[in-house]
Design a protein that fits this description.
Length: 305
C-alpha cells in the first residue's frame, strides 16, 4: 500500500473542468492555465475527471493525458485527486495505477452507475476494489448520477477499510450530511467534503473538512475566503461571501438542461481566456445568447470589466 494512505484532505478542492480542443483532444495549455489560476487563488487541492470534469464522457487516452498534465503542472504543490469512477471494475483499477505512477495523491470513486447496487453489494464492491488501489480512496456520493445513495451505516463500514480516507457528498441532502458528520465525529482522520457549494459554509461550520466547489474553477479566491470564514465561525463574512457565491451560481442557470452547469463554467473560463469551452459529446458549448448571459454575470460580479 502506498504510504500516502494517511492523507487528510481539507479546504477548497475544485473539481476541475477538462479543457478540450476537439472530440478526443485535450487542451493541455488550457489545463495548465486553469491549474495555475486555481493555485494562485489559494486552493488546497484539485480534483480532475469528476462530474464537472466530464470524466465518464472521456476516452482513456484523454483521461491519461489529463492525469499526466495535471500531476506535472501541480508538481507536488497541492494534492491531486483523480476520478476513477467507471462501470468496469478493472478500468477503475487501471486508471488508479496510472494516476499513482504519474504522482497523484488520491483517487475518487463513485458507485458503478449502470446497474444500481444495494448497500451490502456496495460494501462488498469496496472491500474488493480498495485493496487493489495504490492510492488513498475518497468515496463519491452522487445519487443523481449513480442511482445509489451511500447510507450512513455503509459509510461507517467503508471507513473501516484501510485506505478509505474520505467522502465527497454531492447529494444535496443536508440532513444526511449531518448524519455523516455525527457518525464520523470520532474519526478525526476521515475527510468529509461537501459538493454543492451553496451548502459549503453550513457544512464547514458544523465540522466538514472542506468542499469540492465547481465555482472555484472560475473564482477560487471567493471559495477559499468562504471556507476560511466558515472554519472560524465568522458569520458576518460568511453571509457576505455566500451572497457572492449565489450571484456566481447564476452562471449555471444560463442553459436549459442538466449540462448547463458544466457549460456555464467552461463558458466563463473561455471568456476569462483561461481555457477552451469545447464540451465532450453528447454536449456542446453554449451558443451566443447563453454566452452573453454568462458574460453579463461575470461583469456584475466584477470578474470582467
Amino acid at each position: 500500500m502506498n504510504n500516502r494512505n494517511k492523507l487528510y484532505l481539507s479546504g477548497i478542492i475544485p473539481p476541475l473542468v477538462t479543457p478540450l480542443l476537439g472530440k478526443n483532444e485535450i487542451d493541455l495549455a488550457g489545463l495548465r492555465n486553469l491549474i495555475e489560476h486555481v493555485i494562485a487563488g489559494g486552493v488546497h487541492g484539485i480534483f480532475i475527471l469528476g462530474t464537472t470534469g466530464e470524466g465518464p464522457s472521456l476516452s482513456t487516452k484523454v483521461k491519461q493525458k489529463a492525469v499526466k498534465c495535471a500531476c506535472d503542472a501541480v508538481n507536488s504543490r497541492i494534492p491531486v485527486l483523480v476520478g476513477i469512477s467507471d462501470t468496469s471494475f478493472q478500468e477503475s483499477i487501471d486508471l488508479a495505477v496510472y494516476a499513482a505512477d504519474c504522482g497523484a495523491d488520491a483517487v475518487v470513486l463513485a458507485p458503478p452507475y449502470y446497474f444500481p447496487s444495494g448497500q451490502p453489494e456496495l460494501i462488498e464492491y469496496l472491500r474488493h476494489i480498495a485493496p487493489r488501489l495504490p492510492l488513498p480512496l475518497i468515496l463519491y456520493n452522487m445519487p443523481l448520477m449513480t442511482k445509489v445513495d451511500i447510507a450512513v451505516e455503509t459509510l461507517c463500514r467503508a471507513a473501516e477499510i484501510k485506505n478509505v480516507i474520505g467522502l465527497k457528498d454531492s447529494s444535496g441532502n443536508m440532513i444526511r450530511f449531518h448524519e455523516y458528520l455525527t457518525a464520523m465525529q470520532n474519526n478525526t482522520e476521515f475527510s468529509l467534503l461537501m459538493g454543492p457549494e451553496e451548502l459549503l459554509a453550513e457544512a464547514v461550520m458544523f465540522g466538514a473538512s472542506g468542499g469540492i466547489a465547481g465555482g472555484a474553477n472560475i473564482w477560487p479566491e471567493l471559495y477559499v475566503s468562504l471556507f476560511d470564514a466558515a472554519a472560524v465561525g465568522d458569520v458576518v463574512n460568511v453571509r457576505l461571501l455566500q451572497e457572492k457565491v449565489f450571484k456566481l451560481r447564476k452562471i449555471y442557470a444560463c442553459g436549459r438542461f442538466a449540462s448547463s452547469g458544466i457549460k456555464g463554467i467552461k463558458s466563463a473560463l473561455a471568456i476569462l481566456n483561461i481555457c477552451s469551452d469545447f464540451m465532450a459529446e453528447p454536449f456542446h458549448a453554449f451558443h451566443k445568447p447563453e454566452r452573453e448571459q454568462v458574460k453579463k454575470i461575470l461583469s456584475e460580479i466584477n470578474l470582467i470589466s
